[in-house]
Automatic annotation (TrEMBL):
Protein's UniProt keywords contain rRNA-binding: no
Region (RNA binding): 255-261, 279-283
Pfam families: TGT (PF01702)
Xref: InterPro entries: ArchSynthase1/Queuine_TRR, TGT, TGT-like_sf, tRNA_ribo_trans-like
Residues of the active site: 95 (proton acceptor), 274 (nucleophile)
Domain tRNA-guanine(15) transglycosylase-like: 15-372
Family: Belongs to the queuine tRNA-ribosyltransferase family.
Pathway terms, separated by semicolons: tRNA modification; tRNA-queuosine biosynthesis
Domain of life: Bacteria
Identification of the protein by name: Queuine tRNA-ribosyltransferase
HAMAP family: Q_tRNA_Tgt (MF_00168)
Single Gene Ontology MF annotation: tRNA-guanosine(34) queuine transglycosylase activity
GO BP of this protein: tRNA queuosine(34) biosynthetic process
Length: 379
């Protein structure tokens, strides 16, 4: 049982992009990496076998809020944790549920103790505190577990952002204290990542980076972005955070984003990403491909029997045609949701693996500048 370790292999000479790898007790992950989101213990419409064989995922996410409510801690603990419950034997990262409490639960009440909220399932009341969220994540059994924080809405005024940040830092201290008091539950290492907050205010972001860096955690996350702010503001703040976080620790930008968002943020020094966009957009007929963006619902694809995307390494993307996938989508056939979701996830994983190759080759920045206009093209 060893704590997560991170090794840097290369940095692009013309940007801050870097290639590395981190090692967990459930396997090694090469960075930069995209992590499919399995909110309730399942990446929507995609099996664990498809995640491994087609998507080539190296790490997936689970969510504390959703798993706590359903199936519940009793079931997860009886199963021996999420790995054994859902059959995924690779690394898992668990989000703390803070974002869901503040965005989904409604009628929530924030206090020094934590967040009182109502379940979106049955309206029952619950309290998430830094301590309870650490305990819940111990039971879920993620290899990487996230601190309980508040994600302030966009826009927030300075006074609110200041108060929220101070609370997030006090909660972080309690998260570390709770973990020190409780052992890893299933015989492997569970590693806490603190989360940088500070809304859109550069001085608060720098202060948060300094506070979080002082904790000497094995990795650090950047939260509170991609919540409605303009793209250029996201890039500016993500870059600022990367400049003020340790170079020898992985940096995780939470909830971002489009393929071009990911490439731009890799160039700023981000190592880890997650987002529901590839699966959510896939279920709504939007495909990301190596040649551009496709709305597969459009009639123009009705007789296009070419592969969905023969430019990436995914059997689904080569085997099924655009015309067939359009037919499935129009017929509301469940298989269409799976094909679109698998393809989009495979594209995201292909993209970050290509980025890694170009970082190692030393030409990432020029490749990125050529690639972004292509993948943004509306076909």
């Amino acid at each position: 049982m060893a704590a997560l370790s991170f090794t840097l292999s290369a940095q692009d000479p013309n940007s801050k992009a870097r290639a590395g790898e981190f090692v967990t007790d459930h396997g090694t992950v090469q960075t930069p990496i995209f992590m499919p989101v399995g909110t309730v213990g399942s990446v929507k419409a995609v099996s664990q076998q498809q995640l491994k064989e087609e998507v080539k995922a190296e790490i997936i996410l689970g969510n504390t809020y959703h798993l706590y409510l359903r199936p519940g801690l009793e079931v997860l603990e009886a199963a021996g944790g999420l790995h054994k419950f859902n059959g995924w034997d690779g690394p898992i990262l668990t989000d703390s549920g803070g974002y869901q409490v503040f965005s989904l639960a409604g009628n929530r009440k924030l206090t020094e103790d934590g967040a009182l909220f109502q379940s979106h399932i049955d309206g029952s009341k619950h309290l998430f505190s830094p301590e309870s969220v650490m305990d819940i994540q111990r039971i879920i059994g993620g290899d990487i577990i996230m601190a309980f924080d508040e994600c302030p809405p966009y826009p927030s005024d300075y006074a609110y952002a200041r108060k929220s940040l101070d609370l997030t830092h006090r909660w972080l201290d309690r998260c570390f204290k709770r973990l020190d008091e409780t052992p890893d539950k299933y015989g492997y290492s569970q590693n806490l990542f603190p989360i940088v907050q500070g809304s859109t205010f550069g001085d608060l972001r720098k202060e948060s980076c300094a506070y979080i860096s002082s904790k000497n955690a094995v990795g650090n996350a950047i939260g509170g972005l991609s919540v409605g702010e303009p793209e250029e503001m996201m890039y500016e703040l993500a870059g600022l955070c990367c400049e003020n976080l340790p170079e020898n620790k992985p940096r995780y930008l939470m909830g971002v984003g489009t393929p071009w968002n990911i490439l731009e943020n890799i160039s700023l020094g981000v190592d880890m990403f997650d987002c529901v966009m590839p699966t959510r957009n896939g279920r709504n007929a939007m495909l990301f491909t190596s040649r551009g963006v496709i709305n597969i619902d459009n009639k123009k694809w009705e007789k296009d029997f070419s592969p969905i995307d023969d430019g990436i390494d995914c059997t689904f993307s080569h085997y099924y045609s655009k015309a067939y996938l359009r037919h499935l989508v129009k017929a509301k056939e469940i298989l269409g949701l799976t094909i679109a979701s698998v393809h989009n996830l495979a594209f995201y994983l292909w993209l970050v693996k290509e980025a890694r190759k170009h970082i190692l080759a030393g030409d990432f920045n020029s490749w990125k500048n050529e690639m972004i206009p292509i993948i943004k093209t509306r076909l």
